[in-house]
Amino acid sequence: MWVRMSIDQTTFSRTRQSYELVRIITVNEPVSVLRVTVRVDAYAEQSRALVERFNGTRWTEVVTRPGSASHGAMPSYASRDDDTCRRAAREIAEPLIDFAARTIAKVHGV
Fold this sequence. Notes:
Blueprint: E1 5-14, E2 18-27, E3 32-41, E4 48-54, E5 59-65, H1 67-71, H2 82-108
Antiparallel strand pairs: 1-2, 2-3, 3-4, 4-5
């Protein structure tokens, strides 16, 4: 199944304790707008990776990955430069985005 995606917006932020990548993606326009958030925190329970779909009024969760699963796979917030953190967050986000986009496309028969 072929899924057309375009990245509309990407933001990256970093604090002394965490970093976060948020990406807004349009899938098979105008079917779905997805928001993927990957956050790595000093505390595993505050880390997360999730994909949400905008239904016209609010964001609803499509795919999520527990903080503990994401936390060990990503570099520490404290010991890496911004580019390394961005790259690691994208590596976690891409499979989630792909899975969510294909699932939504299948539901809508695209």
